[in-house]
Structures are given as C-alpha cells and as structure tokens.
Amino acid sequence: MKNTILVVGSVALDSVDTIHGSTKRALGGSAVHFSLSASQFTPVKMVGVVGQDFPEKYRGYLKRRNISLEGMEVLPGKTFHWVGRYDRDYKNAETIATHLNVFEQFKPKLNEDHKRCGVLFLANIDPDLQRSVLDQMGEPRLVACDTMNYWISLKKPSLLKLLKKVDMLFVNEEEARQLTGEYNLIKAARLIMKMGPRGIVVKRGDAGAMLFFKDNVLSVPAHPIEKVVDPTGAGDTFAGGFMGYLAAAPDWKNFDVIRRAMSYGTVMSSFAVEDFSTKRVGTVSKPQICSRFNKYVDNLHIR
Amino acid sequence: MKNTILVVGSVALDSVDTIHGSTKRALGGSAVHFSLSASQFTPVKMVGVVGQDFPEKYRGYLKRRNISLEGMEVLPGKTFHWVGRYDRDYKNAETIATHLNVFEQFKPKLNEDHKRCGVLFLANIDPDLQRSVLDQMGEPRLVACDTMNYWISLKKPSLLKLLKKVDMLFVNEEEARQLTGEYNLIKAARLIMKMGPRGIVVKRGDAGAMLFFKDNVLSVPAHPIEKVVDPTGAGDTFAGGFMGYLAAAPDWKNFDVIRRAMSYGTVMSSFAVEDFSTKRVGTVSKPQICSRFNKYVDNLHIR
Q1: pLDDT, tens digit, 9 for 90 and up, residues A28-67
Q2: Which residue in A has a C-alpha nearest to residue B301's C-alpha?
Q3: By C-alpha distance, which of A68, A61, A57 is closest to A282?
Q4: I need a labelling partner for A134 at 20 to 30 A (CA). Which of A262, B55, B129, B226 fits?
Q5: Rounded to whole angstroms, how far apart are CA atoms A288 and A195?
Q6: What is the tally of structural domains in chain B?
Q7: Buried (b) or exposed (e) across B75-90, using 16+ Cβ within 10 A?
Q8: What gap in Å lies between CA B104 and CA B24, rounded to an integer?
Q9: Which of B258, B260, B300 to probe the A interface (max A CBs under 10 A)?
Q10: In angstroms, rounded to a whole number, what is the distance separating the alpha carbons of residues A277 and A36?
C-alpha cells in the first residue's frame, strides 16, 4: 500500500455554462478530478459522500479507472451540486448556486485499508475534517493538502495546525498571499515553509505553476491549449498528476522526480480543460499522456 | 554590419514611484532599454531624439556599452518625460503625466551606416514612422517591431501595412487579442501570421512569454525574482536580449536558436526589474548573464 493514494474530498455534480456550451449535473468534485488524474499513475482510494441521486453510471466510470470507492458513503438526500459560469477569458468561475446537500454532513471515516495507504491527499475541505482524517491515518510517507480562501479567512488557526503535519501544500497565488500577507511568491513560499510544509505548489492557471521545495524554486509554463472548454477541476487534476507520479516514484524527495511530477501535473491539467467535466481526463490513454509529456519536456529542453 | 542592430524608438527620462522607492528623471525609453540589453550580444546603433536637457552622463553611460549614438538627434526643447506609478502588484503602470516634448517632432533619418545594418528593431512608435524607417533601409536580413494598444486603435491600417514587411512582432496578450479579435493566444498568433510576420513573441510579464514561429509554439516561464523593484522597460529589455542573441547567431530561423533567444530575453528582463531604470541591465556582466541563463535553462531541463 506504499504507493496507494488515499484522497479525501468532495464528490459533486456540476452544471457549468461556458462560451463553448454547457453541461448539466456532470461528474465533478475535487476528489473525483484528483482521482481520475492520479489513477493514471498509481492506485487510488477515494473517501467522499454522495446522495441517493448519484448516478450509477458515474460510479462505474470511476471504478473502470481502478479507483476504489469503498469509502464513498451514500447518505439520504442529494449529492453536492455546483452551478457555475465562465466568461470568455475563463479567469474566474462565477458561482450561480452551491447546493451542499449531503456534503454538509460529511464526516470522513477511514477503514483499515485506507489507514494503511502510503500517500494521503487532503483535497479542499474544512481543515478540521482534514485534521480528523490525518489523525485516523497510520503513518503515511507523504501527506499533501489543498485549501482555499474561505478556510484561510474563517479557520486559519485550524489550518495552521494542519499545515504543521503536511509535506506539500497546493495553493493558488491569491491563497499564498492571503495566508502570509506577502505579495511576492518566493517570499510567501518561504513563510509557508515555516508553517510546516517542505514543499509548496502554487497553481497559476494559464501562467503555469511554481514549485518551492527546500531551497529550490521551479517555475513551469502551462501547456498551451488552443480551445479551453471547461477549466473546472484543472487544479485538482494538476494535483492528481503531480501526486500520482510522486506516489509511484521510489523517492519523492528527489528534486528530479519532483520536476517530472510538475510536468505530469501540467500535462494532466492541460487535458482537463479540453472538454467538460471529467470527459477528457477520464478517457485519455497512457500513450496520449506520454506523448504530450515528451513534447512538453522536449520543448523546454533548451539546447 | 550583418550582425549590427539598428533600433529606432524613444529616449526618455522616467520619474517612477513604487513601493520600493522612487526615481526622478532617470534614463528610460524603449530604444534605451532595448539597446542596453541587445548590446550585451551584438553591436547596436540607436536612432532617437532628445532635448537640450538630456544629461551628458546618460550619453556616456550608453556609449560605454558600445551603443552608437550618431543617430541620437538633439532638438531645441526638453526630452520626453514620463511620470508613472506602480502598485504593490506591479501589474499595470499608472501614468501620472506624459510630456512628449521633442519626441513629438521625431522624424527618424538614417545615415548610410544605419541603412546597412543587417537587423532592424522598430520599437513602439507611430507605425507611419516605423514604415518610413523601413523604407530608408537597405536590405536588412531580419526586421522586428513592437507596437501598443494606442496604435492598434488609432492607426490599424498603417500598422497592417507595416506588418506585411516584418519578420517578428512583439506584443503583449491584450494587444494580440485587440489586433485579431481572438481571445485564445494560439489562434490569435495564427491570425497575426496571416498579416505578415512569421514569428510572434507574446510578452506576459510574470507569466513568462510565448513564441509562435511557423508551426512551433513555445511557452517559457519568467525567471522568478524575489524583489521586483521597477518593471519599466522590462518588455523592451526582453526584446533586446532576444534580438541581440538572434542578430549574433549564424541562422536566426533555426528553432533551437530562437528558443535560446527566448531564454536570453527572459533572463535580461529578469535583471531589468531588479532595480530602477537601467541600473541593473546597464551594469550586469557577461558572466552574470551566463550564470543566470545556465540556471534558467538547467531548471527547465526536466530529466
């Protein structure tokens, strides 16, 4: 179970409207986007909650990707439903409605298999819940978490307690600044490291991503995409590719391994935005991933 | 003169206010930033105009960098003076005052040496003036130009005539979109290529830069800088490093050469923002440039 990732986060139905079309109650949620991406590299077990309306076809879709759903609890009521809209520039999602539904009662409970997973990814949920999951775990060799502006504002003390115990933190630029009060990302990352994590990934959308690990700073570009259809879940897909590759690697603390993980994260998220919901990442093949990875890495190999 | 760059553009005095301090009537202008950067790689001749107040020390500063100032005309009156301010995020310069002064009478006149330069860079000035310069030239083997939103709005027909005759265009994201009406940068670049240029560099500030050349697309990250002091002229400094490297190379159309040029542009602009005005780029040494270039390229060489 050394290479198996346990992911705890949201499972959702997303209704999204964009200039390229729209989707109704499509498969979404941070744990889902993460899992579909990570399962391309390593076994994944998912812990989440859905309502009785959660379509059986989505369950099959995830299982076919070898994602263990034993931890996906079904509660009376409806599944988390997000309704959103993107403008032409795809910079910010406009939330039209958030129906938390059964997600409001989410109390992650791990079984014995979950507890023995070597790698843990705490997707963006209440930091108190993230800590309760960590407390239930055995001794994972790699723990990473995501968070958001809402928790930084409302539950900072709880988040800071969590950060003491995680190896890697995923944030976007604004979250890094909000967490530290420092505008410059290099300085902000250094301050976050003092809070606990030894590695920080700053997701920057179409500006790529930055990695801070010990004394190393790495900035990588996004893979240019000609037709962005739906960026929902791109950040979780990035984290899935990154963590999936790290989980499968013999030594995740090796900087060469981490740089490749950044590239796989980039490549997986570039697939994510090409179609609605999980359509592209759920069906992309290993050779397609390898081919885009090689093209991306070759292009950046400046001779 | 095959490798000599002729640059035509503004010479200015800049008064800039930032969170890290301010500067009064410091050396600036597109031709100046470009020249100081390009002259690290190849001989540069500058064509511009200044007033009688232009400080002798700035003239000496440029000459010591082997920039030929024979084309720097002195007119009765004052030098172009820009007064601006940057916020903490350094995203947009706020213009407080623009005193064009003698720059309003700028009518670039080339001497015989200028006309024989192998490479021409038309910095951001009125496209009618850019065309008049091109008409005076012999047969340069590489012509590049910059422009801005103002000319795209006010003089688009003239700009389009110019674009038919240039090899490379430098724009930022908004300019690429404004010029084509297309939001996606890959699609926008393809439309611009139909207007004439076979290469397009899209400058994206701290998100790096993108290059489109024939069928190739390359996105490179910015070199992360811990303390951004003054971004004025960073785009022209990028163009200077890029064009300087291309001018000195045996075959500028080779994609490997162009990729290195993108990296040198990135590295030069990373120096530019580290201090006010031209202080850093005007004093940086060859070994410092090489060291940062090697670090940048090594970091992106994902093994």
Answers
A1: 999 999 999 999 999 999 999 999 999 999 999 999 999 9
A2: A301
A3: A61
A4: A262
A5: 38
A6: 1
A7: beebbbbbbbebeeeb
A8: 22
A9: B300
A10: 11
CB contact under 8 A, B226 and A186: yes
pLDDT at residue A165 above 90? yes
Q: Flag if B303 and A183 touch (Cβ within 8 Å).
A: no
Which DSSP state fits A101? G
Does ipTM top 0.85? Answer: yes
Q: Is the pLDDT of residue A91 over 90?
A: no
From chain A, pick out residues whose CB is under 8 angstroms from the CB of B262. 302
Per the structure, the complete domain to which residue B270 belongs is given by: 5-300
Closest Cα partner for B259 from B231, B301, B227?
B301
Confidence grade of residue A93 (pLDDT, cut at 50, 70, 90): confident
A200 forms bridges with which residues in the sheet? A169, A212
Strand A67-75 to A44-51 pairing: parallel
Are the beta carbons of B205 and B240 closer than 8 angstroms? no
> Phi-psi category of A77—alpha, beta or left, where left has phi over 0 and alpha has psi -120 to 50?
left
Nearest to B227 among A184, A223, A263 (CB): A184
Which residue from A187, A210, A221 is facing B226, i.e. has the nearest CB?
A: A187
Q: Which CATH number is B175's domain given?
A: 3.40.1190.20
